[in-house]
Amino acid sequence: MARPTEPAEGAAQALAGVLQEGLPAGSQVLVRWREEAGAPGFSMSAEVPDRLHETADQLMATGNASEDVQTLIDVWDGDGAMRAAIVAHVPETMPQSARRGWLTMAKVLVAAHLAAVEAKARAERLEKSERLQQALYEIADLAGSDLEMADMLRRIHAIVAGLMYAENFYIVLYDDARDSIRFLYFADRQDPYVADPALDIPAIDMPNSLTLALLRHGEPLRGASDQLRVQFGVARDTDHGPDSADWLGVPMRREDRVCGAVVVQSYDRPDVYRDEERALLSYVAQHILTALDRRQAREDLERRVEERTRALQHSNRDLQAEIVERQRGERLQRALFRIAELSITSETLERFYAQVHDVVGELLYARNFYIAQVSEDGAMIEFPYSIDERDSVRHARQFARGLTEYVIREGRALLADRPVIEGLQRDGKVRSLGTLAHCWLGVPLFREEVVVGVIAVQSYSPAISFTSRDQELLTFVAHHIGIGLARKQAQDRLLVAHGELEQRVASRTRELAEANAELLSQIGERLRAEQQLTYQARHDALTGLPNRSQLLERLAASIARAQADAAQGHAPTRQFAVLFLDLDRFKLVNDSVGHSAGDELLIEAGRRIVATVRGGDMVARLGGDEFAILISDIDTLSIAEELARRVLIALGEPFWVAGREVFPSASVGIAAWHPRYQNGAELLRDADAAMYRAKANGRNSCAVFDEVMREEAMRILDLEADLRRAINGDNFVAFYQPIVRLSDRRVIGHEALLRWKHERRGLLAPGEFIGLGEDSGLIEEVDWLMYAQVAKRLAREEYGYISVNVSPRHFLSADFADRLLRLLDEAGADPHRLRIEITEGALLDDTARALRMLRTLRSNGVLAQLDDFGTGFSALSYLHRFPLECLKIDRSFVAGLVGDTRPESMAVVRAIQALAGSLGIHTIAEGVESESQRIILRELGCQHGQGFLFGKPADELMPLVSLPR
Q1: Which part of the chain is the EAL domain (predicted)?
Q2: Confidence (pTM)
């Protein structure tokens, strides 16, 4: 029996992996099945031998196979053509009861898995059926809609495109009596032909048309267009458009006559259409024909009704027109005179609005009437007048998508019945506010060509509707209402303005008197505030000591005096120095007894330092637990060192804080004046560096900044500058060391190792700059440069997987996984061919974040390997929680396999192998440099390795072949 197509590695091992957990370590499991529809499937553990595949083939074919003490088999049949088989190989003999129990459990799990697969298949079939049914309903609805024929056909095209690939789609009608074709609809992304639905094309004018061959053949056609032309003897003709990679056409039949066809085609993908699409398009084509017939019948009926109605209306129209026009003109003239009079005689705006309503009510139905105005700031709609049967009160509102706002936005009148309103709602242009009207008429109110409001009438009864005549009438009246309203509002504003002016004059007089008194008070308050701000800007808020800013000012003055002496040719008679002091383990106090206790300790430390220094020296707090002392007028540097020792003794005295006795200590760095310093920040920087040297020497001590430290600092600065330039110049490259299978030395992947092409020092290994990169934070940028190179290499070459080292700093970034996956996607690389190597410290810094990140990467195919295993915590208590694919045995244990430490190293490697086996993961031995090491590792169960025995890092990948011995 042929093996089914292999799924992805994770999916293939999921079911078998669950079954494998119930067997001894080293067991192998293979599951085969054939679904009810005959589709094959399988699941297996890694590296299943061909013998198990042959046994599974025999079980699926005959239902039985030979079984031995190390082989477990079972096979059973389900509904229809369903059959499933299980084959497992165990490295040791299992008790019969355990064998039966495992097979029973395996059968239940496989049956549940197959049930889920079948349920999913049935759901997909049901979904397809529902989509087809919905499409047919939509086509039927379109047939009865008021859409134009072109719009209806475009929507039918969209419905068909939802069922299959139909970007290139057309519908033709065929008249067999006249032997002519009409292209009713034509949409094509390559063929520029523009169809005229009214144009009849005689068949004799298009003898080389594949569409005509379809109509005369009378049965569906499917395949490449060049093959169909050969089949039906149709010559190639460029007038009929470009060739298709796949072409599907189905005829439309009315009774037994072919009356048209529906065609879809693909220019760039062959075999897009299969039997399922052919049957589906045939079924849809008949419904399209039904829709076209219904549309044609309805149009014929409407045309006949319209012709008869037109004849009756024509005789009456002329007679009524003159009467209506004369009456309308008289009413309109009276209304305009009345509005002009009201704008002058109405006492208030409210009265003006009510009287205008009465005037409009004489011209048309205005039982429901309102006037809307745009607020002064343009943000609100206000309703100064409203009379309505349903909505008794209309509150002001912000601009929304009501009919009123629609008229304001468009700047033209709107006459809308219920269908028109619903159509505007479907298009998202309006949203009904308040009670739904049966018919609504609104016209804009203008002021100097700007819409400032709306006058509207509406009807809630189907018996009452407005006409275009009403719209013209209300539009004409609205123009004069706008003029009258502007005049009335101007009069009202003038009266209000006079009153407000008098109030403002009186109010302003009082305010000026009060302002004079307030101004004098504010001047004094401002002077006090400036003094307070000046003090706060130059002093520490907690200790009251001078802050960094004031210290730098004093340092700048001291440096300026020293430089002035040097410029005049005089050596300064007195020297000065800076002491940089940092409290040791201050964070421990904060974390144990709280920040308030830490503040108390800082205040006490400041007091003790001040009590120790001389009267002219300055003590400043720089921030946190850092202090600085500027000592002036010293003869030798030994005075500064003596002061540092006195400060350390004073700070070392016990101190009670939060009920606990603590013994503070500090580290002090000293930097003396030198002509090379240009500002105080440079002096502080070197004193800070000396302080870190004191901390490194064991804390509670002092150190003096000397030339050796300066040279080291300059070297680090130069190296950091080189590192930044190298990042900008992309001077980092990835070297690849092969990872091989120890049994046959076959290359299975590579580890990418970082190298720096230094412009002066040549190729540098990570050990020469990785520490600086970690301290400065630049290592993350370097890593991303290397990740980009690896991604491009993965997309370009097929040489197994590549593993990259991930710094623990990356695990502090919440978007590391998403950024790495996005990088692979942009490069077109397969995530399943990338591994990340992490250390145990990265896992333990933030286990929750690390677990989420590893799960995200694994779900997208990127597996994780634990690097340098055995040198850290190496505890099962945390290791089993993380989704790891591999443990990398540290090179120190591999080196110990040969020599005096062999027993201890073998015990460690054996324990690592046992741990990896219990977790279901494999191992890779690092640093394999001799054949004897390879042999011992194989005997201990290690499957893979890397080291100089198999190849040194190089800038090219090795092919996936067995390396020579």
Answers
A1: 716-965
A2: 0.38
